[in-house]
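Summary for the funding panel

The consortium committed to producing paired sequence-structure records for every protein in the target list. Below we show the first two records in order, beginning with the earlier of the two.
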Amino acid sequence: MSSTQLQGPPPYQAIGRHAVMSQVDHDEAARFNFLTHMNRFLSTRLLPRVKDAYERSALPRFQAAHGRAPADRREVRQLMADETAYQQWSALRRGTMELRQQTGRAVVLRQLDRLNQVAAELNVQPGLKLDPSLPLPRYIAAVDQHCMPGSYHTELVANDVSPAANYDAGIFATTGGGLGRYSDGGGWAVVEWLREQRSEWLARHASQLRILDLGCGLGHNTLPLAQAFPHAQVTAIDVAAPMLRYGHARARSLGVSNVAFIQADAEQPPFAEQSFDLVLTCMFLHETSRSAINRVFQQSYRLLADDGISLHLEQPQYAGMPVYEQFIRDWDAHNNNEPFWTTMHDLDLRALAADAGFAPEQMFETGLAAVVDESLFPKPDKNTEDYGRAAAWYVFGAAR
């Protein structure tokens, strides 16, 4: 067997540790390792067979019946529903997500009192501001996003961190380590892009850099910005208190103190106009709604100071993409509790940004890949990524 064939995702034991990270025993680590390897198998071995079934079987059958190729991803989805390769891949992919959530949940609940206590002790330090009266947007309150029981916000006990602890414990298995030791590859990709593509902008803000992360979750992608730019004042907001409690405690345990975690709605952040130099979102827009995303863009413009940058990291938009790839990427909308996924990826983000006030000539688009520790983790390969689970992203942004 060649060395290439022997390569695989790193073991769960290689994951980055911090004070509020769940502790796993032998059997729990083995379950996560199984899920990690299963996800890798699905993306590198089964997914190519799905495409092969489309090109060799489904597509010719459709062309023979209609005298044309499928016009859109909806016709592809109807066509592929009867293909055994797709049925197998889809069922296993859904199954691995459910197993990931239940495995992580069991790990966390076994030690929930300890996790909550450790977080509470770390959260005595300044930097966490919660608002129990803040209403949850319906797009968060009504959906268990990506099969996560109770989504990001449900509290089982007082001062709960269980949703964030579950997410932090399980994302490694979903991505196969592709996001790095601390699952922060998205944040480091943004840092690398700023250093390479906006070095002069960084120099202009060397004495003061104010950063706002909208929909920060537990701060996976927030902390790299704070670590890379220690002079920066970083503000991270989210509507889910458990994510913020855990995120602040996690940051403090990793020695990061220049981030304030604040419970607030990205549709109406409680900050003055032009308060920030960089306003960003990381894999957040697809969790919102059509009306919410309009307001997020409007708030991004309102909050940016002159010479500021708004940046949104997501999966690629569908416009101009082959219909088969749209169909595969759209799997999450129909099978993984992501109801806004389809609509968001069909939107004209340039039009949204223009409506919010951004000048067309100041808009930009680019691709990013996660920055990871390649001594432990395989380098992300956009040619074999699992269409939404791996680390090849699209960035839309605009300057003011």
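The next record, for a separate protein in the list, is shown here:
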Amino acid sequence: MARERGFAIDPSVLSAIEDTTFTPLRASDALDQSIQAATLNDPTPNDSLLLMAAHDAGVPADVTTGVLATRLLHWQRPDGRWMTSDFRPPHSSSEFSATATAAAAIRAYAPAERSSDRDAALRFCSSYRIENR
């Protein structure tokens, strides 16, 4: 987006940032780590923000991104929202932000074989009303 708006981007800096940011998706043990989730604290902001960034950076869908998106599908609350225990305003403290980022990540990376689950989750979250909380 910055490049589209006329800003010069140093390719080596961009590459270093992407390498750091996308290590959970690109490391040799990324799939194993995503399945085990041994260090995962809160999947809603962790997985959804990572997948949103990956989508915007053009990272192709694969099994690892599918695992993260599927995990998000399972974290949807019975009333359609996603919760977060990460209370660092403004980016990750609200149910609205948690629900919006989870929906965007699921829309981008839910595996094709989970398309009916994806579609149901997205329909369900669209009916969630923040003002009722």
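Regarding this second record: The chain has a mean pLDDT of 86. Residues 43-57 form the longest helix (15 residues).
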